[in-house]
Amino acid sequence: MSALSFVFSTLGLVSMIIASLVKGKSMKVILALVFCGNFFFAVSYLLGGQGINGAASCFVGAAQSIINYFFDSKNKPLPKWLVAVYALSFIAVNLIVGGFSGLGILAIIASLSFILCIGQKNGAKYRFWTIVNILLWCFYDLISKSYGALTSHVPLLLFTVAGMIIHDRKGKKEEVAEEK
Predict the structure, then answer these.
(1) Which of 16, 149, 155, 175 is deepest in the core (most CB within 10 A)?
(2) Residue 85 and residue 89: Cα distance in Å, rounded?
(3) Which of 9-13, 26-30, 49-53, 169-173 is the least confident region?
(4) What is the tally of structural domains in the chain?
(5) CA 31 to CA 40: how far, in whole Å?
(6) DSSP characters over 118-168
(7) Residues whose CB is less than 8 angstroms from the CB of residue 107 and which lie 6 or more positions away in sequence, other chains included
(8) Mean pLDDT value across the chain
(9) How far apart are CA 172 and CA 156, in angstroms?
(10) Cβ-proximal residues to 173 (8 Å cutoff; 6+ apart), any chain
(11) Distance in angstroms (rounded) separating the CA atoms of residues 144 and 11
């Protein structure tokens, strides 16, 4: 396992932590940070010598994040056909890279949950789906022995939960107060 893998994983972690703590209705800033985080995590997987499915998924996820960024910056919804292309690209890349294995299937499922993360309209829903996504990637990291990524995914999970508690729980209380 490479020390450089941990450096890139840390850069990915910082990008994703900031993304999970961003408050606001626009996903533009979140998507830019998610792009950076996925790129760094992909490099970390490659440098760590493990988790080729993780690297492939993160590179595809980075591309999807930047595409969504441009749609969000123009306040345009994602076309359904594009979401289908996202899903097919994750499935194809993971089958090509890792074949039809248990680890490959887990990477596909985690990757598909990522589509739900970046397809949200606000930070609260993004954080919910991010928790699901991170849990799946933690299992992948353990099984593939991608410890560089795991050491980033665990704190990211904690910060995402903290972001949910700070921003989303407070938002629910404000919505209830406005309804009364």
Answers:
(1) 149
(2) 6
(3) 169-173
(4) 1
(5) 14
(6) HT-SSHHHHHHHHHHHHHHHHHHHHHHT-HHHHHHHHHHHHHHHHHIIIII
(7) 53, 54, 56, 57, 94, 98, 140
(8) 83
(9) 23
(10) none
(11) 21
Euclidean distance between CA atoms 93 and 55, whole angstroms: 10
| DSSP structural state of residue 80 | H
What is the rounded CA–CA span in Å between residue 71 and residue 65? 10
Q: Cα angle at 10 between 111 and 87, to 5 degrees? A: 10
Q: At what angle do helices 102-118 and 28-48 cross, to 10 degrees?
A: 160
Distance of alpha carbon 24 from alpha carbon 27, whole angstroms: 8
Reading phi first (left if > 0) and then psi (alpha if -120 to 50, else beta), residue 51 is in: left
pLDDT for 140-179, tens place per residue? 889 888 776 788 889 989 988 988 888 887 655 554 444 4
Which residue in the block uniquely carries the two structure tokens 């499935």? 91
Which two tokens mark 179?
Answer: 């309804």
CA pair distance 124, 131, nearest whole angstrom:
11
Place of tokens 């890139």: 8
